[in-house]
Design a protein that fits this description.
Blueprint (H helix, E strand, L loop, with lengths): L1 H14 L1 H15 L1 H6 L1 H23 L16 H9 L2 H15 L7 H8 L1 H32 L1 H8 L6 H26 L3 H6 L2 H8 L2 H27 L2 H27 L18 H37 L1
Helix pairs in contact: 1-2, 2-6, 4-8, 6-8, 8-9, 8-10, 10-13, 13-15
């Protein structure tokens, strides 16, 4: 029973890492809320050092210094998984954490779990800011130039990558989404910097409140980028599957599977055993690329749509209270 549950969790993580990460980090934030408040600086230093260790080689390279790949923190044992794959990857850590921060503001603090999250909302904003900075540097270094070339030097872009492009629509959506990420990072940095106590003390409360309104364009851009990347991948994959190359690969994969089953069956029969197909398990089930993208797009629309409904309802309740007081 436990093995089946773990198998299902693994399957769900492969199907939607954003959704599972969101559940996991929400649970951890609730459990660790008191610890985060008590040792906030320790959390800041840990996430700051890990993010700086990842970003420093790229910063040095941008400044014109030749650096060795061994200098990166991801070259250390386990750090490539912890930092490179998890901490700095948007769908595993950054996006879920920003979504938690976003949703806290739409929920009622009367719920004890929401109250716990609300007490560390500022702390979570600062914690996730360090990976966002490192992720942003990576995007500026690797992704932004390519997206810029698509719009500014389109002929050169097509000449260099034309053979790998199967859908112009999918490529256009992808580059728009990636280009929007630059504005997303800029807005986040403004909000992140003003989350620190020093800047909150320096700014007037009204000015600080006005700056916080930039959170709404941030959330909108985050949705547009995430949805756009899934949509572009869906379109590009469908276009690729119509090519002769994709059909050859698909037939080869099917034949390899049939050969594997035939060899296993022959081995069983040679030993006098009865061959039975393996029972269904989540770990052996492969999710198709279109199904993966569609599922994640539905998840994004559902979650962000829920946030929008909750926000509108909360604003109406606030308006009704004002009218009652008047």
């Amino acid at each position: 029973m436990i093995q089946t549950f773990l198998d299902f969790l693994d399957f769900m993580f492969r199907l939607s890492p954003f959704l599972i990460s969101l559940i996991v980090y929400t649970t951890l934030a609730i459990i660790l809320s008191k610890n985060i408040r008590r040792h906030e600086n320790t959390y800041y230093w840990v996430f700051g050092i890990l993010s700086a260790g990842y970003a420093m080689p790229m910063i040095l390279k941008l400044c014109g210094f030749e650096i060795q790949s061994e200098w990166s923190i991801t070259s250390l044992p386990l750090m490539d998984k912890i930092v490179g794959d998890e901490l700095l990857h948007a769908k595993y850590f950054i996006h879920p954490m920003i979504f938690i921060i976003m949703f806290i503001g739409a929920l009622s603090a009367k719920n004890p779990y929401v109250a716990r999250l609300k007490s560390i909302r500022k702390h979570l904003s600062i914690i996730v800011g360090f990976p966002v900075l490192a992720h942003g540097i990576k995007r500026v270094f690797y992704t932004f130039p390519n997206s810029w070339d698509f719009f500014a030097n389109h002929d050169e872009y097509m000449a260099e990558r034309g053979e790998r492009i199967y859908s112009m629509l999918g490529t256009l959506i992808s580059n728009i989404a990636l280009f929007a990420g630059i504005f997303l990072i800029i807005i986040f940095i403004v909000l992140w910097v003003t989350s620190f106590n020093y800047f909150q003390r320096k700014l007037k409360r009204r000015t600080w409140k006005k700056i916080q309104w930039f959170a709404y364009p941030l959330y909108a851009l985050l949705f547009i980028q995430s949805f756009g990347l899934h949509l572009s991948s869906f379109i590009n994959h469908n276009a690729y599957m119509k090519t002769e190359k994709a059909q050859i690969e698909l037939i080869a994969k099917q034949k390899a599977k049939e050969t594997e089953i035939a060899e296993k069956k022959a081995l069983y029969e040679s030993r006098g055993w009865t061959y039975r197909p393996e029972p269904f398990s989540f770990s052996s089930y492969e999710v198709s690329q279109p199904a993966y993208r569609i599922f994640n797009m539905v998840i994004l629309v559902t979650l962000y749509g829920s946030y929008l409904i909750l926000r509108i309802r909360k604003a109406r309740q606030k308006q009704i209270k004002k009218q009652v007081l008047i």
